[in-house]
Each structure stands twice: as C-alpha cells, then as structure tokens.
Give the backbone structure.
Amino acid sequence: EIVLTQSPGTLSLSPGERATLSCRASQSVSSNYLVWYQQKPGQAPRLLIYGVSSRATGIPDRFSASGSGTDFTLTINRLEPEDFAVYYCQHYGSSRYTFGQGTRLEIK
Amino acid sequence: EVQLVESGGGLVQPGGSLRLSCAASGFAFSDYWMSWVRQAPGKGLDWVANIKADGSEKDYVDSLKGRFTISRDNAKSSLHLQMNSLRAEDTAVYYCAKGGPSGSFDFWGQGTLVAVSS
C-alpha cells in the first residue's frame, strides 16, 4: 500500500503570495491516480485536481499541480483569502484509496 | 445538481451497531462507484469502503473488514454502511462520496457524525 507524506505540515503565507505544497509517495505512482482536495473547517472536502494535473470543474486557474513518480506538487498562485484551508493529496491503486495527512495553509 | 445527503449517525455505546445511509440525487446513481470516507475529530481523511456501480464488487480498508458492510439500492439511489462492533476509534464524521475521474471523489456529502462512547 502506498503511503503519502505531505509537507510542510503547516504553511503560513499572506494573500497574494504563492503556495507550494508537496506530496511524496512511498512507491512510484504508476497510474496518474493522484488527486488533491481542499477542506475548510466544518465542510466536506472539495475536489481540486485529478489525474495529477487536471483541474476539476469550477476550480480557478490559480490552482495548478504537477508531478510524476513519487513527487507531486500543488501550486496556488496569488493566494486569495478563501484559499486558506487544509489540502490533502490522495492516491488510488490496487482497489485502495490512501490520503496524505494534509497540509494546513494558514494566513501569516 | 449533485446532492449526497447522509443520515443515521449518532451516539452509540461500544460494541453497538449503526446503519448509515446516503441519499443521492442529481446524477445517474446506478452508473457510479460510491464510497464511504471518514474523518476522526481533528484528524485527516480515511477511506472506509467502496462499492461498484451495480453492487457486484466491494472493497474495504483492511482494518475494518468483517465489522463494516457497504451496500447500495440503485432503485432508491441510496448507499448504506452497516457498522457493527463499534469501537471508540470509529468515532468520526462519515462522508458519502461519489466516484470521479482518475480515482478521485468528485462529490461529497456533508457528513454524519458517529460518536462511540459509553
């Protein structure tokens, strides 16, 4: 089973800055089944990115993602106040879904 | 508009049982895999189980096999999770989630809280 490790645990930035979030897999992700979600307090997660780099419907283009093998990155350009939340990466493989532990993006 | 509405959560004693339900609307329910994902208070997300569109295949996280059973009723567009022998560590918000592209969950319910305590 692939283990996903996200870093940093907490990222403190100001609106307008760029956020770079990392997700590292314990084994190579051979399929492109790497996903990113955003979760705000008291809310369900929201799909941001699927297939490593494809934005979900309605997701602004300031959100982008990339990666391959074991290293994946979510980038948020020009942070807006509503972007401060917890972000999770997720993998699907061998009939199993695994999540990273999350990165909290907080206002500096 | 896709809607997933969970129900059935509540306070239950250790060793007890609970059956969660998820009412789906706004999409062709019988065409999609569905899952349950849980989140313990202040913790991250954990996948629990999923079920194929026609109900013919089911998968569970290894640690829950034998205690939890996922099922669906396509005629009623509903998803269920039967939880038996509940433990304190099963305390969490349980989300119903629709299978999306590339192994994602593209829609989530608002969640239902299950609290296991004496």
Remarks:
- The mean pLDDT of chain A is 96.
- DSSP finds no helices and eleven strands in chain A.
